[in-house]
Amino acid sequence: MPTQTFSAAASGTISLGGQLTVSRLGYGAMRITGEGIWGPPKDRAQALAVLRRAVELGVNFIDTADSYGPNTSEELIAEALSPYPKDLVIATKGGWVRPGPGHWSHDASPAHLRKAVEGSLKRLRLDRIDVYQLHVPDPATSFDKSVGALAELQVEGKIRLIGLSNVTQEHIERARKIVPIVSVQNRYSLADREWDYVVEYCEKNKIAFIPWFPLAAGKAAGETLARIAKAHQVTPMQVALAWLLQRSPIMLPIPGTSSVAHLEENIGAGAVKLTEAEMAELGAVSLPGIGTRS
Fold first, then answer.
1. How much is the average pLDDT of 51-58?
2. Contact at 8 Å (CB) between 241 and 25?
3. Which residue(s) pair with 83 in the sheet?
4. Helices 276-283 & 219-232, crossing angle to 10 degrees?
5. Does 135 map to a domain?
């Protein structure tokens, strides 16, 4: 594979709510925790090195959540990067609680979200969270009340911008009647386009779309990826990320990894430019994907 320009700047930029501008290749910090997204990583030094290398490569959007660990991901981000570069945007989430490794349960009650925001502020060593996302609607709590709680915390100055995760278009529309929404984070990839209509809604309304599990690929998609990757002398996963970036200008992929080498490969995808014919061919091989929670 030829030498590549390993810089997130090659992916272009995106505006969040007209207030913050970030490179369109971010970093998802879920995988720097232990097995089952639980507890500390096996190699703490490596986890810290990945975070620092991401910033060196021009990544200025890092996505995390209080449920990753729980708490571990946020703590590692602060340890590795605080005091933060001025242009670094840290987005975190609340609304999931963790009873044990590999287990997740809902709590998006206003009381819990307030406690979650306070905890994230402390762990991240911040006075205000740039982007705070409702991790998932809670079937036991009014969605409007969950969003309203975040709106109150925004008025109090603890949150700058608000995003949503794992939502339908109806959720987004309801939330926007309460408070401006700058981002939506749903499972999405070349081979898993269940949320295509949400991507289109976000593009129409200038809302950033953050795909989680962005590197899923079905068998047919994988074969096409491999052939196109060979033509470009890059890896199939770099082609999958390049497809996302070219799929829509509001796309903000956040591939996660606990490996510096894999991180560099991901960031290198920003320099891969697919032809219209390749985009069309890839667009015709979508298969249902099975993701993991983000």
1. 98
2. yes
3. none
4. 170
5. yes
Count of domains in the chain?
1
pLDDT exceeds 70 at position 230 = yes
Q: What is the pLDDT of residue 118?
A: 98
Confirm if 75 and 68 have CB atoms less than 8 A apart.
no
Say if strands 13-16 and 20-23 run parallel, antiparallel, or are unpaired.
antiparallel
> Is 181 among the domain residues?
yes
132 is catalytic: no
Residue 144, C-beta contacts closer than 8 angstroms, at least 6 positions apart: 174, 178
| The two structure tokens encoding residue 235 | 């890896």
In a domain, 54, yes or no: yes
Ordered DSSP codes for 128-150: SEEEEEE-S--TTS-HHHHHHHH
241 located within any domain: no
Residue 171: CATH number of its domain: 3.20.20.100
One-letter amino acid of 198: V
Structure tokens belonging to residue 208: 């950033």
pTM listed for this prediction: 0.93
| CB neighbourhood size of 54 (10 A) | 27
Q: Alpha-carbon distance 160 to 40, whole Å? A: 29
Contacts of 99 (CB under 8 A, 6+ apart): 105
Catalytic residue among 68, 84, 132, 188: 68
